[in-house]
């Protein structure tokens, strides 16, 4: 009986997975990061290595969706106001870096005897850093939100924008092409503006109501499908008019940064992003021609040193000149000196337009990949310098200065209890993030001026996206005891350092929370009942000092009973109930033993 044929790409998938499972842990153990492991795995299994797979170009087309999803997730972290505050880094620092690095490398090419068009394409192509590569490094190190991480991101964003005029430059320089007419240029501008407007209007006015409707259905898979549709749909709109797909996804992410569904979107997309990003770097590694490197190692070594040296020098100098401390400038310089994935796009377009020959494009691609491989080594070297200086007791601000993050609180559950608790915390100026899984509550809270996000507290990825790992305290204000218990277990496992404060619905729940080892719990019914009883006694004419004495005694007996119930069961300590509080006399107070 003939066996059934394997599905398409089945064998290739097994090879991909096996190579990454071996290479990535080794690279991380060596301190080089997962990206180097993916690149090495691609080089090993590709057509220039063990030849287990053919060309990586087909894989690269699919894997580029990982870059799209990465930029969408990054956009979710930036609201429009924050992006506007970064305008100097994006348009000032980023533009200056691209222009200075590109012109300098152009000059190097002309001095070396290379033609003007080839030097121009090569110089500006190599001036672009890898958004996917650099952001992956920053995320792995947990430094994307640091001051230098934000400046580095601003530079990368400008480089993504720069690919559009660079591709136009290639088309203009192409031999045999006539100049574009004014009508054609005007038509292109109108198409680009229309695409940007379509993404902005859809993101601002249509997406949130759709997600609100989908959330009410409680179908997680539909929410996930919608999240992917938003990211890829916005990327497709931009790609249709000739803009970067990643830029379109980033814009959609920024527009949804203020949405109530921001954290759930991020958590849903993260697994797809991680998988596709790994596939992207494997495909890039597959394109590295090891034989070409060996035959032209002198040219490539000089090229790699020039690119990383010139780019790193400009990054450091421009960062210092625009206000960064020396430590931040050095970290930017060692994080962004590599070539980028858009260089592959630019060089491919140049080959198609007869501006580069195939051999030159391969050499330039090899330079880009080698700079990617060497960037984690440079980062590791800077880390070791910082560690050595710290071990010697040298406070060297030129190597390491970090700002402490401000304390934040994550409020889980934003009903009546959570809203009042949040009001007290914000009154002290603390930063609050709140999540809830009921769209009606989220809508009501937002109308009251609170920023509340849709999220499931029993999902570790949602808690992480909402900032549980950075929070100083998590306030569990939900009503469902089982949901709270599951969430507490997740938090204790994944975020063991954070304080957990809980709202207990009743006495049994309070006992359960105590056994789980939460840092603080309070029974809302007990506290409101105490306040109720105090008001009743006061209305009946009981003196205030006597009311205080009664409350103190009732609380003391309740604590004793709780301690007994923890070991003996719910019905222990019944004798502590229904007792009359003994009256204190003046003589009793004088007879108390001195401490």
UniProtKB/TrEMBL annotation:
- The membrane-spanning stretches of this chain are 6-27, 34-53, 59-78, 90-114, 120-139, 151-173, 185-207, 273-291, 297-318, 330-351, 363-382
Top-level taxon of origin: Bacteria
Q: How does it sit in the membrane?
A: Multi-pass membrane protein
Xref: Gene3D superfamilies: 1.20.1530.20, NAD(P)-binding Rossmann-like Domain
State where the protein is found: Membrane
InterPro entries reported in the protein's UniProt record = Cation/H_exchanger_TM, K/H_exchanger, Na+/solute_symporter_sf, NAD(P)-bd_dom_sf, RCK_N
Residue intervals of the RCK N-terminal domain: 406-522
Q: Give one Pfam family, short name only.
A: TrkA_N
Write the record's keywords in alphabetical order, separated by commas.
Antiport, Ion transport, Membrane, Potassium, Potassium transport, Transmembrane, Transmembrane helix, Transport
Stored SUPFAM superfamilies? NAD(P)-binding Rossmann-fold domains
Q: What does the sequence similarity comment in the record state about its family?
A: Belongs to the monovalent cation:proton antiporter 2 (CPA2) transporter (TC 2.A.37) family.
Name-wise, this protein is Monovalent cation:proton antiporter-2 (CPA2) family protein
The organism of origin for this protein: Roseibium porphyridii
Lineage start: Bacteria, Pseudomonadati, Pseudomonadota, Alphaproteobacteria, Hyphomicrobiales
């Amino acid at each position: 009986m003939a066996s059934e044929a394997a599905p398409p790409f089945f064998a290739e998938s097994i090879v991909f997975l096996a190579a990454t499972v071996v290479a990535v842990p080794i690279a991380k153990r060596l301190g080089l990061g997962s990206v180097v492991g993916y690149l090495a795995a691609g080089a090993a299994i590709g057509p220039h290595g063990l030849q287990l797979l053919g060309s990586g170009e087909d894989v690269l087309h699919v894997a580029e969706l990982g870059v799209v999803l990465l930029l969408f997730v990054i956009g979710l972290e930036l609201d429009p106001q924050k992006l506007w505050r970064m305008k100097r880094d994006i348009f000032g620092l980023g533009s200056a870096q691209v222009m200075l690095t590109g012109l300098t490398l152009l000059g190097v090419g002309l001095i070396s005897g290379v033609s003007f068009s080839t030097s121009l394409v090569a110089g500006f192509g190599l001036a672009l850093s890898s958004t996917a590569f650099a952001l992956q490094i920053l995320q792995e190190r947990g430094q994307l939100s640091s001051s230098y991480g934000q400046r580095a991101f601003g530079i990368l964003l400008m480089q993504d924008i720069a690919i559009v005029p660079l591709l136009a430059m290639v088309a203009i320089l192409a031999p045999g092409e006539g100049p574009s007419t004014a009508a054609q240029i005007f038509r292109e501008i109108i198409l680009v503006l229309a695409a940007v407007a379509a993404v902005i209007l859809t993101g601002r006015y249509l997406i949130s109501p759709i997600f609100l409707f989908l959330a009410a259905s409680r179908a997680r898979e539909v929410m996930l499908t919608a999240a992917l549709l938003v990211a890829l749909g916005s990327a497709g709109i931009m790609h249709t008019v000739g803009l970067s797909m990643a830029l379109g996804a980033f814009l959609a992410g920024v527009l949804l940064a203020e949405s109530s569904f921001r954290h759930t979107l991020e958590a849903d997309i993260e697994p797809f992003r991680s998988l596709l990003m790994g596939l992207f770097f494997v495909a890039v590694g597959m394109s590295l021609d090891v034989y070409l490197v060996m035959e032209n190692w002198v040219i490539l070594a000089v090229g790699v040193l020039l690119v990383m040296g010139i780019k790193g020098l400009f990054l450091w100098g421009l960062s210092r000149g625009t206000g960064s401390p020396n430590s931040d400038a050095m970290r930017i310089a060692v994080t962004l000196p590599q070539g980028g994935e858009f260089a592959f796009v630019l060089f491919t377009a140049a080959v198609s337009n007869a501006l580069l020959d195939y051999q030159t494009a391969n050499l330039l691609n090899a330079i880009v990949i080698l700079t990617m491989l060497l960037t984690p080594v440079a980062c590791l070297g800077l880390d070791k310098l910082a560690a050595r200086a710290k071990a010697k007791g040298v406070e060297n601000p030129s190597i390491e200065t970090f700002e402490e993050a401000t304390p934040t609180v994550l409020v889980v559950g934003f009903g009546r209890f959570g809203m009042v608790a949040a009001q007290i915390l914000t009154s002290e100026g603390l930063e609050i993030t709140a999540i809830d899984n009921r769209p009606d509550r989220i809508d009501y809270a937002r109308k009251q001026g609170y920023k509340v996000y849709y999220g499931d507290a029993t999902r570790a990825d949602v808690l992480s996206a909402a900032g549980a790992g950075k929070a100083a305290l998590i306030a569990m204000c939900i009503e469902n005891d089982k949901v709270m218990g599951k969430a507490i277990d997740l938090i204790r496992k994944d975020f063991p350092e954070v304080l957990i404060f809980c709202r207990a619905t009743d006495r049994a729940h309070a006992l359960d929370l105590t056994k789980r080892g939460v840092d603080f719990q309070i029974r809302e019914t007990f506290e409101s009942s105490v306040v109720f009883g105090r008001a009743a006694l006061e209305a009946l004419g009981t003196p205030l000092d006597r009311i205080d004495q009664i409350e103190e005694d009732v609380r003391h007996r309740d604590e004793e009973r709780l301690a007994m119930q923890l070991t003996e069961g719910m019905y222990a300590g019944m004798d502590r109930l229904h007792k009359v509080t003994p009256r204190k006399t003046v003589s009793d107070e004088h007879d108390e033993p001195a401490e």
